[in-house]
Amino acid sequence: MMMRMGEMGPQLGSVIASVMFVCTIFRQYLPPQLRYYVDKYSHKLVKLFYPYIQITFDEYTTEFRKRSEVYSAIQSYLSTKSSTSARRLKAHDVKDSKSLVLGVDDNEEVTDEFQGIKLWWVLIKREPRQTSFSFYPQSDEKKHYKLTFHRRHRDVVTGAYLAHVIKEGKAITVGNRQRKLYINNPSRNWYTYRGKIWSHVVFEHPATFETLGLHPKKKEEIVNDLIKFSKGKEYYAKIGKAWKRGYLLYGPPGTGKSTMIAAMSNLMDYDVYDLELTTVKDNTELRKLLIDTPSKSIIVIEDIDCSLDLTGQRKKKKEKDEEENEENDPVKKKMEKEESQPSKVTLSGLLNFIDGIWSACGGERLIVFTTNYVDKLDPALIRRGRMDKHIELSYCCYEAFKVLARNYLDLESHELFETIERLLGETNMIPADVAENLMPKSVTENADSCLKKLIEALETAKEEARKKAEEEEASKKAEEEAKLKAEKEEKEKQQPAKDEVKCNGTSTKEEDAK
Ligand SMILES: Nc1ncnc2c1ncn2[C@@H]1O[C@H](COP(=O)(O)OP(=O)(O)OP(=O)(O)O)[C@@H](O)[C@H]1O
Ligand SMILES: [Mg+2]
């Protein structure tokens, strides 16, 4: 009997609620003295027959009418329960979610079990009483989840169970979440973007560590390092260090630095915050931007050598290109001019943030710097502890080529591999160029022709490198010869002068002798 009553818990509640409703109607016809006794005993009766507790969770918090995080977590948590137990489901697209979320339909009940305790969830929607015009339609509609359970489980439910629901729900939300690429807005546009200092787009870069053309040993080392970092919460807390890690990726253009950042984001499931330092006005703005980055994010500063020095060659080139394009547009020209105002971000400002207390807020952040010229960087920027790992991405080696051949042509081995191995040892080619040659350009192109194309390109590169070396050698020789010739001419010029001095000297001596 108890079992049956337990199972029909919330339904019993509706029956009792109806009885109470009838009592309330009758109550108003009773004299006041009697009303007191009716109230007292009806509550006792309800307590006796209805030993359940109900908790409600509103969709919007009363402060600032912000969507409640607890409500969202419950919604995600119940989406996994409801698809198996509820008969009426509702499909809806949750903000930032990559797939549709199945939820409980209004007033549909979902049962859950935790440590042998039975619980009932129901989503209750209250329609607005009167139709009113509003810019914010969701504010009129009130929704809440109602949780019902037996009162003897109060401690477990309010403690362990709710913590479990929120944790699970948040994990489901994170798993469903679409990753984003954030780009900082120049501060003069913050007003236009309604105070948003970062703009984002959905990040769907397909790069992974499997597809990255890199020596497998190096790849394994980096992947292990990243995984160790992601599991290092307790370790970092134990050693008293902020949970962050700095990577410096350096190497010539087209060697896969940006591709590796995308692979890192895909591996770790972190959002990418691409910080364009040249548009950051000063250190205060930099601080604002960094404080606004949450945990589980990768903060990227590309071409750090050019970012802190606005005379950097890339920036120069970009400006020149843009100037050519917008020559006749005065408005754009003005904006360009404003934009090209030198950033006042200083190296010390940047270092302060990397090392400073900010880095401990939220934790779990990767900071990645890239550069083509590692030697140009200030040693203060790349010292250990600041940039924990230095990764060199260089010309394509044979092992990296094998990864690319597997990706692009599904080839594990081929008779031409030997030739390619030899040529890669003899000449430098960036992975971007190797990849470009391996990519079939038409339906008629097969693996054989792609490999031959690569061999041809490698031979051309080798030939060009040889010619260049020869030319350099020749110009060096010519320079040396010219130098020698100039020295000789100088000597010859000085010779008659000396002779003259000598003659004069002799004549003087002669004169003296006389
Ligand atoms: N190691 C690599 N493995 C696979 N593809 C690569 C690799 N390196 C470069 N590529 C290919 O070349 C293109 C350019 O690479 P990427 O932008 O990562 O180079 P980068 O090192 O960031 O260059 P830059 O210094 O100019 O920013 C990418 O689209 C990618 O497909
Ligand atoms: Mg790049």
Automatic annotation (TrEMBL):
What InterPro entries has UniProt attached to this entry?
AAA+_ATPase (IPR003593), AAA_N_dom (IPR025753), At3g28540-like_C (IPR058017), ATPase_AAA_core (IPR003959), ATPase_AAA_CS (IPR003960), Mitochondrial_chaperone_BCS1 (IPR050747), P-loop_NTPase (IPR027417)
Cofactor requirements of the protein: Mg(2+)
Q: Which CDD domains match?
A: RecA-like_BCS1
Q: Name one GO biological process term.
A: response to stress
Cited PANTHER family: BCS1 AAA-TYPE ATPASE (PTHR23070)
Whether ATP-binding counts among this entry's keywords is yes
Concerning its family, UniProt says: Belongs to the AAA ATPase family. BCS1 subfamily.
Q: Which residues form the AAA+ ATPase domain?
A: 243-397
UniProt biased composition (Basic and acidic residues):
329-340
Q: Which SMART domains match?
A: AAA
Q: Which Pfam families match?
A: AAA, AAA_assoc, AAA_lid_At3g28540
**What are the UniProt keywords, alphabetically?**
ATP-binding, Hydrolase, Magnesium, Nucleotide-binding
Asked if the record carries the keyword ATP-binding, the reply is yes
What catalytic activity does the UniProt entry give for this protein? ATP + H2O = ADP + phosphate + H(+)
Protein name stated in the entry: AAA-ATPase ASD, mitochondrial-like
Native organism is Prunus avium (Cherry)
GO MF terms listed in the record are:
ATP binding; ATP hydrolysis activity
Q: Where is this region: Disordered?
A: 314-340, 462-514
